[in-house]
Queue: 2 jobs
Job 1
Amino acid sequence: MIHVLTTGGTIDKIYFDANSDFEIGDSLLPELLAEANIHDGYSLRELLRKDSLEMTDEDREMIAAAVSQTSANRVLITHGTDTMAETAQALKSIAGKTIVLFGAMQPARMRRSDAVFNLGFAWAAVSLLPEGVYIAMNGEVFEAGAVRKNLKAKRFERA
Amino acid sequence: MIHVLTTGGTIDKIYFDANSDFEIGDSLLPELLAEANIHDGYSLRELLRKDSLEMTDEDREMIAAAVSQTSANRVLITHGTDTMAETAQALKSIAGKTIVLFGAMQPARMRRSDAVFNLGFAWAAVSLLPEGVYIAMNGEVFEAGAVRKNLKAKRFERA
Amino acid sequence: MIHVLTTGGTIDKIYFDANSDFEIGDSLLPELLAEANIHDGYSLRELLRKDSLEMTDEDREMIAAAVSQTSANRVLITHGTDTMAETAQALKSIAGKTIVLFGAMQPARMRRSDAVFNLGFAWAAVSLLPEGVYIAMNGEVFEAGAVRKNLKAKRFERA
Amino acid sequence: MIHVLTTGGTIDKIYFDANSDFEIGDSLLPELLAEANIHDGYSLRELLRKDSLEMTDEDREMIAAAVSQTSANRVLITHGTDTMAETAQALKSIAGKTIVLFGAMQPARMRRSDAVFNLGFAWAAVSLLPEGVYIAMNGEVFEAGAVRKNLKAKRFERA
């Protein structure tokens, strides 16, 4: 059983014409998983709807608490990419679980996006990796504490 | 020959992860027209990349000048929806041409958008309507000076 | 009020893995119209699910009867492209209505398709054209009896 | 380095209006990988364009030869789903490589498809799994020789 926690980020952004702006909407993950023929074997909980630049230490504690609370030992977390590495670091102390954070550079609701590939990649990663905390982005797996987002290259890399 | 002028608006917004924001990008119209098997019979000129809340009287004069300059007597204009009615009004004095303004409530680059339907609808409208200035939105044709955007209902209606 | 009759064709084809094949599915038109913010002002009736190469004279009589029966004087018909010109010809005798046939070269369910543009284009055509029978394809309006599908160029043209 | 071999199947089917039919086209994988920000770290070779019901023993020998020839020790194979289990079985004798077969129930070119999720899932699987031959479908990893396609349920399961 995979437990999915959604915290926001680009992946679930929606365009709101009224504000000429975007906001984080309902997570598209259930719909994307259904399109991939995955209808069970997971639970999903919406925790936050935050752009990760706005994540606070309290938010990270809330995420850590939610990870610890679930009986599932495989946990997938959607998260904004800007501070994903910080949140991963904050979860390193949790033992006995495989925890994978992922997100996207383009909203899942765009015609062209990395969101669905990243979801599939992360789904396999959380199913196959041993206990620990990881980031799964741009087709690679990184260990928490040894990863950073390269803003210029717009990708994650080993740190 | 249809002359297309792009001025910006939601229809051509792109998501920029670097800014956690949507900005107006290259117009997607040539790509959308190609997908519809339309490869010639039109010319396209990018005039502005403005959210229509930021349109000024000078911008509207620039648009009017561009409309007057083209030898084509059928002119299609992409425009943000918020002040489309004002720009339509400002073009009413131009004689001898069929001028149709349209845009979209969701960017053309989204998986679900009104953009492509609106483009097709406006393409027929500019081909069939007699001289005058019109707005073509939510599947209806409105005459300039007698139309407004109903913000709450998120649609255009007769005024 | 626009009355929409769906008769099949490429536009509504679905891929069926079980048959390694395609079949005509439920019409996607209501969903596409909703995405374009069109929720009323029309009625829709599924008449047939035929590839137009398989249309018979009896099918064409059925379509003509359905057109005559509706009280709406603006009728849109989805139809396979291969024999759309024949069906248009068969409807020429119906007076007092604006009848527009359209379809698509690629199913509406494909990522890249002419279907949505064609729907928007035809929606405006049926709203603006005077009484008569027309085909609206590849961004042009053709009169029934003076149009054919150019198989090599994959587009409709004046005959 | 991941070596990708494409052999056909539903995943790369294109709709051909001329034949009123779906045929296997150029593989969409390079475009999908680019959308996922993956531009290097892999090589791709188009081997076949076959619906897997038409795969022969000679085809399977060709695939096995191509797998053995590559210096890469991580090989991803796109394949039709109907006989994917047979081909996986035929590759079991190849030692020293992680070989993952995957495909899709809906063409990657459809608006709604499992193709992109499956690609991401398989990309992680081939990166993380130990030597051996596997099928990665519907969000699960199966070992060759212990898997079959459940036609009725339209999914792969342990055999």
Note: The radius of gyration of chain D is 14 Å.
Job 2
Amino acid sequence: MPRPAVPAKAALIQIGACGVCGTDLHILKGHWPKPLPWPFTLGHELAGVIVEIGPELTHDWIGQELAVGSKVMLPPLMPCGTCYWCTHYPETANKCLTPVYYGRYLGFDKPPHLWGGFAEMVYVDLGMLPGTKVYKVPDDMPLRLAALSEPLTSCIRAFARAQRIGGFRVGDTVVVQGSGPIGVLAIAAAQEMGAGRVIVVGAPEQPRLALCRSFGAAATVCLDDHPSPAERIAAVRELVGGFGADLVIDCSGHPSAGPEGIEMLRDGGTYVEMGQFTDAGAIETNWHRICTKDINLLGSWAFTANDIPQGIAMLDRARDRYPWYDMQTLFPFTESALGDAIAAAMAMRTVKSTIIPCEGLD
Amino acid sequence: MPRPAVPAKAALIQIGACGVCGTDLHILKGHWPKPLPWPFTLGHELAGVIVEIGPELTHDWIGQELAVGSKVMLPPLMPCGTCYWCTHYPETANKCLTPVYYGRYLGFDKPPHLWGGFAEMVYVDLGMLPGTKVYKVPDDMPLRLAALSEPLTSCIRAFARAQRIGGFRVGDTVVVQGSGPIGVLAIAAAQEMGAGRVIVVGAPEQPRLALCRSFGAAATVCLDDHPSPAERIAAVRELVGGFGADLVIDCSGHPSAGPEGIEMLRDGGTYVEMGQFTDAGAIETNWHRICTKDINLLGSWAFTANDIPQGIAMLDRARDRYPWYDMQTLFPFTESALGDAIAAAMAMRTVKSTIIPCEGLD
Amino acid sequence: MPRPAVPAKAALIQIGACGVCGTDLHILKGHWPKPLPWPFTLGHELAGVIVEIGPELTHDWIGQELAVGSKVMLPPLMPCGTCYWCTHYPETANKCLTPVYYGRYLGFDKPPHLWGGFAEMVYVDLGMLPGTKVYKVPDDMPLRLAALSEPLTSCIRAFARAQRIGGFRVGDTVVVQGSGPIGVLAIAAAQEMGAGRVIVVGAPEQPRLALCRSFGAAATVCLDDHPSPAERIAAVRELVGGFGADLVIDCSGHPSAGPEGIEMLRDGGTYVEMGQFTDAGAIETNWHRICTKDINLLGSWAFTANDIPQGIAMLDRARDRYPWYDMQTLFPFTESALGDAIAAAMAMRTVKSTIIPCEGLD
Amino acid sequence: MPRPAVPAKAALIQIGACGVCGTDLHILKGHWPKPLPWPFTLGHELAGVIVEIGPELTHDWIGQELAVGSKVMLPPLMPCGTCYWCTHYPETANKCLTPVYYGRYLGFDKPPHLWGGFAEMVYVDLGMLPGTKVYKVPDDMPLRLAALSEPLTSCIRAFARAQRIGGFRVGDTVVVQGSGPIGVLAIAAAQEMGAGRVIVVGAPEQPRLALCRSFGAAATVCLDDHPSPAERIAAVRELVGGFGADLVIDCSGHPSAGPEGIEMLRDGGTYVEMGQFTDAGAIETNWHRICTKDINLLGSWAFTANDIPQGIAMLDRARDRYPWYDMQTLFPFTESALGDAIAAAMAMRTVKSTIIPCEGLD
């Protein structure tokens, strides 16, 4: 790939780390609900260093100065800020009609072809795609840590949705369904936002549930030991005590999470559905239970442009409170390693397979 | 039935009107999810006049004076106010652990046997059942109007739940699923609480949808003309315009309402499930749609003791704004008429079959 | 004034009605807290008819088609939508850093000089001032009614602020301080948004308090009869009963409103300060009362671009529910009449002095 | 004092630690706004061990088992749960009409005289005062730590009020006015509830501001170096950057905090007034600033019975995250030491003077 020219509002970013997201796996399984511009470069949890920058791209989205050498991250979804939706429903700009979309909707064919994170370089150009948003990360934040800021933001926004409606209060008992990367990050986000206790339902014990406990989960319920929904519900209710959990959040992506999860809630509790980000199918659901339990149920899909700085900032201030690196398994940027990274993630042997395209870039 | 003695904190109430509720019909169909103390007296939308009162029952729940001749209503569900739930989760006291429950859980066998609304008299006794709550209605409010205050309260609380979370704002376009009594009352409640436009999906055109329009519905979509969910969704979206409805509320009690209704919503909108009050079964549901549409979904079940005065007050101040009586079909209190009232409601020939146990008591 | 050329994104609007706002009076008294570009054309509650329009100005802010003959209104404050504030704090875009500002900040010197409502024509140009927002009003809405949409929007937004935090619930007792135009419109807005009872404190009885009652105020307390704060507080509390009002809103613009108004509230109630739009001075305030009464206190200043359609829509659907025209006193557009209009408003002989620049344009 | 008999629902508690509260100091200065039953025993931040208990007092307020040897704390204010206010406004039960009130409203004359914390024993009797609430603390929690749970609860509730209205979001920059015990505890509570940065305005540097920084304050502004409000506002705004703080909370008890603090806020920010718990006088306030800054202002006074467990639980889970003991200066329970403890607190030589009535009880 030839190194592209860098116009006035553009920059070229050398990628130091890029996570493999569950959505990448779902895309490969065909769960993405809309047509995609195949071929395109996957990878959207990326952090890197600016190696070339145009003279008019002087600041990031929140007004921090950018220059060659600045560490930055790019999220996949960048609301345009100018469509009818963005201007009239800014609080849910995650549903922007014409977002800039890295690692998914920018086809490989489009020059200069550098639109995804499983690559050595990524290109941004606010002249060509004015909705593009670049976010500076602290100079002393390792890039592989910064690569967690996007998925962490998704978790923060999901809990913030609940907090905003009074459905997540300080001291609440939170149940996380799913022990993949989103589940693990949700454990940290829940605690940083005031949760009293966090209990995780997932599998397998190694490496996932053990990692969950090292992130602060008070207890874990393993799918392998509790193969039926009824057993899992009973195990969680036993651990939680009282009337059930205050908040249950689906981070599993499995269609059965919803009907199972609402039975772990106390009446009047809050269920957050952030796991069914892609379409993995439908499930029998008794809506009478939603009614009679008098619960709140929130869908939370991705994030807005103003949420991302929260992910970076939380990662920064809680840097020493969680074993962030323990969730990452690093893979070099070779064809076979990329395949391994994805296969390991699909097989749940890793929690967060992370590609390191440029060794030594930290 | 012998006229009971009336102790110090008790009262005997002559019933002027009692509505037949959809829940009564669901109970008769076996949809009530828990055991019931058969035999018991159905009927819980009741309004009457105090004919005898003990010396210590001096005020109603909100401090209004009570005396012989006072018009009152009783709701079915009266949270006790003293159980662990009521004291620790007062905002959702509708889920009280030990409620007083007229027309359902007080078995006929329990003396003095007058625990339901399909009767000439109903008995309250705060000595025997301290959680009992009596609500005075204005002296000049006809009893058959007062009999609507309980179902109207359910609608108000459902919308208030949505309002409290920012999911129902002034001017919002509201879609009501269901054109039975709850649907009709929801039309009034929505407008009184600031809705911009109300659109109803239901059947049949006569008497139900016509009545909905006379209550202010801007448009109606008839199930008979749009037999499939896809057609109804398309018809509603055509009427609503833009991105879809701001709020959709299930007042139908049909299990399919949920998955269908969320497709009528704009992204970021709010769905309120108050219709599946009893258990009419499960339905295939794609939770990915809840996630990707980034919606709020609220279950609202019944009401608390502090909601009821809102129903009475709204009925009072909006007395002349809606054709309340047009929704009621009156039946005398005879065995055959009671059967007719229920049969007519089940067949949707009436909207709100209403029993008038004591002719002339107004 | 020569008739200006109308470029591609511009329009020339013939003004049918323009209200005299309390802010106009405060500006004339020197209460505006920042420098103003004297000379400029006052008048910002304006409605008119498009008489010429450029080919690229095809739709209003919410996507309605515009053409010669379309009735429109312009608000004074138009958030730009692109500054740092607007993009990062869109929920409070009323505090935009670089708004387009009719009737105040666009100096007369700036060609084509038509930047205010006390004139026959007003000019908009989205090429020159891209933040400009035009709002279509219904074809059958009289322009003098449309001229009320901007101040009504201010009231709606103030109540919506309270509603969003749970501080204004259906059936609430609302006390309005002030019986000028904002006070009167607040009576309507409160009822349309679910208030149970509205009580007004103001003066004089004629024409103001009488008008308040015709707008639905359940009772009024006259300053002339209750000259001291203690008397007014006692009178309001007597009328309200119980523990005090649920919500008190300052629509008076008098500095004393706040400390007086919070004593009319029940503990845990909500006070909305929308009256001190300009700086009329400070007042002794005991913040212990705010603390110990455990109240919410909200400042609400103007509105965002997305609020205005709510004002137009409420005016439209509630057209027949309030005697809107009774609040307006019409003045022709002559130099002496303009002076009379302002003098009458200042002397509280009128409620809403309204200039009719073009007789017969309705 | 003779050791009292302990009836069926009573208990006798040996006090291990009792903090000296700012309210105690304000009471001694005459700032309490209502008559008090002099003489009475001050001291209401108390923790101790049950030494005798009646057979019917089996569980604490949240259902935990009580026995001789159980560690417990008592708050000063215990809402009765049965008055009109408690039953109709349970969310603000802190304003209960007939609370049980330790350390203040239970006069010394009332047998068995043990109604305050500056004593060796305190007595509870749910037979005599049914609103009394006892809260178990974890067996392994030192009593002097438990003595912080009541003031910490006040801080939590204040922030929770802000969170509930969307006025305190994860990552927010929080300014705390006041570096006394409430200010220090607010630093911890803010961080535990998701604050991004906390900045404190107070004095003196030693011991107070140094302690604030050890509790995690990112920066402090000293009154001694910034004697005027304008200097403090400028210093805070310089530290905060951007448009000002997201949330400012008064923990100072000084009347000037309010008008000064709102100038530290960004527009649209939230001010919480929890410092003016007692009446220290009024201050010139420009309510135009509240209006034009479009802010939220919340009074938060004490707590409800359901808030206290949050204080205990936060103290428990964050036991190792803050240097709690560094804020306490211990005094034995002698007449002269009690005077010293109060004098030291008044002179701001200590942060939290803490009485240890029973040495060795831990």
Note: The mean pLDDT of chain C is 96.
